[in-house]
Every structure is written in C-alpha cells, then in structure tokens.
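Weekly structure sync, notes
Attendees: PL (lead), two postdocs, one rotation student
Agenda item 3: pending single-chain targets
PL asked that the sequence for the first pending target be pasted directly into the notes so everyone works from the same version. It is reproduced below exactly as submitted, 385 residues in total.
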Amino acid sequence: MKIHEYQGKALLARYAVPVPRGEVARTVDEAESAAKKIGGSVVVKAQIHAGGRGKGGGVKIARNAEEARSIAGKMLGMTLVTHQTGPEGRVVQRLLIEETLPIEHEFYLGIVLDRAQGKNVFMASADGGVEIEEVAAKTPERIIKETIEPGIGLTPFQARKLAFGIGIPGASANAAAAAIVALAKANDALDASLAEINPFILTKDGEVYALDAKINLDDNALFRHKDLLELRDLNEEDPLEVEASKFGLNYIKLDGNVACMVNGAGLAMATMDIIKYAGGSPANFLDVGGGANAEQIRNAFRILLSDKAVKAVLINIFGGILRCDTLATGVVAAARELSVKQPVVVRMEGTNVELGRQILKDSGLNFTVADGMRDAAEKVVRLAA
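Predicted structure, written out during the meeting:
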C-alpha cells in the first residue's frame, strides 16, 4: 500500500527521523493558513503517489502566504503528469505546505528487500535528489550498501559507516547516523516494503532532514497495523483494483486487450507469458484464488469486462480446490447477467472438468473451449485482433 509524502513523514517523525515543519492542505484557505503558521517562504508540494513531481510542476516555492494561496489555487485540481503517472496523470487533491531549508547537499537513503539474500539492505548515496535507478545504471559505485540482519537491525557502526561513506562531514555525522538508524527502525516497525528518503539533506548550518519520504507498506502485514489502513487513498488507486480488493481478488490492470481470469499466481504469470508468446497483450493480472466460489467468479468477470480496452477474455483454470463445475457455473451466470458481447475462451483442467465443459456447452452462450494453454492463447489472441 502506497501512502503520501506527508503521511510518510508523519510516520518517520514518530521514530525520530528529522523532518521539516509542514502541514497538509486540501483547500486554498488551508494552504494560506498553513503558510502563515509556518512563516516566511514555504514549499507547496502536490501530494500524489508518483515521483518526478517537481519536473511536472507539482513543487513550487512561495515567498509568503499570499503567494502560497495563489500557487495552491493553480495546483489543486490540476492533472499532474510525471514519468511515473503515465500520460493520463493524477489529479492533485492534497498539498503539503512545508518550510524551506537552506540546502548544502542532497543525499539518498533507502531500504529495500534483497531477495537473493532474503534480507533488507540499506542503500545510501551522495547523489541525492535524482532517481536512484539512474545512479545505479550509470555510477553503481556511488551507492553504498549495508545488509540489515533480521532480529538485530541496523547497528550504530553500520549507520556511521554509511554516513561517512556518502560524505557527511564529521560535525554532522552523529546526527546523520541517528537518522539512518531511526529510518531502519521505522522500516522494521511499520512492516514497510520500501522506505526511501530522497533527498536526505544537509543544511548550511549542519542539520540533517528528510526532505522527501516514500513509504510503501506491505499489504500482507496490515492486519498488524489496522491504524495504518486509514492512510489508504483510494483516489490514487485504479478503480478496478479497488473494486477487486473488496471481493478478495488479486487484480492488477495492464495495458493490453486480452483479459485473463486465472486461479493461482504462478498460473496467472504463465498465462500472461503465453498470451505475449502468441502475439497478444494481457489486459490484466487476475488471480481468483484456489477457493473462489461462484459469486467471486461473477464479480471477477464483471470487473474484467469493466475495462473498456478488453476485446476478448481468456479463462485459464486448473481445478483443484476450485472445481471446474463451480467455475463454469459462475462464468455462465456472469455472462448472462452482464450480457457479455466479447468472445470468451475457456481452458480448464482438473476436478470435474468434463462436467464443467458440459455446463459451458449447455449454456447456449458463445464460449470457445480450448484444448491446452497454447491453443487457448492462440484462439483468444485471434479473437481479440
């Protein structure tokens, strides 16, 4: 689950990561009031779930409260397009009004899971304020890494090594090391899948601050953090993905025109691969799970067909816990209720497969029953053309 910058900073502040003074604003009046409270010049920052906001016009400096109000009036409601939003952009509905700071240098701090090691890794770089992927591609030696041992955490020694390694001056090294340890503690306590500060700044008077914050929370751990569920902003998520989550469906929208309904994440990945191999393009990832019932199948079908880009549907099910006859019954009911016009190709194997195929044939609806995955992919790609 992604959260906004101002929410991430509030969480980091709980664990003693130094952050600038700031307030969230949803109206121009709130923006002006926040700027007056902070005093002096402020930064007006659009709050969307995407990076590159500055280049897209989503970060502006205001010299006073009146100018902050003017900037907020232009920024609120605008569609902000960045390299991470895609051409459709995101509508700005919230702003962060924050104090300006005298920046001496910008650094990068971040924690991600190294799947090869099975451990979190703390990364730091003297090249902050730019995309870390760009640094990794062009100058990987500029990124310093420290492995975080489970149950031990990032040690003060490692934190000082990172601070000195990226060029933090001696007078500020202890403060930087403390912030680094605090970020690691926050990452662990929040069950974050990503904790990133870019830039982490050194001011001209030797202070350190998290000038930005990107925190992604592990969905699978949210049962331990029910208070964090309140931070979810549904306006920043794809409407179909939000709808799917209500029914326990794992759905991710993609850019193609062949909709996929599959049980099991591995089979879903293989299905998308074979669609590409057959010359098509998947419109989504949808895993209905091994224990799906007819009602979930119906809702899954409805969500798939709500995507206007879909030209054909491929249903690829291996019947184990989810029996083939249960799938067929749900698909037939959904097709009748929704008056499906797109062609539907079904490939099923497993428990009650013959009964499932018979239910499809007896429905009188336009289903194409495939013999194997390759046959299914070739047929659905041809029908979607």
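Discussion points:
- Residues 170-189 form the longest helix (20 residues).
- The chain has a mean pLDDT of 91.
Action: rotation student to compare against the earlier draft before next sync.
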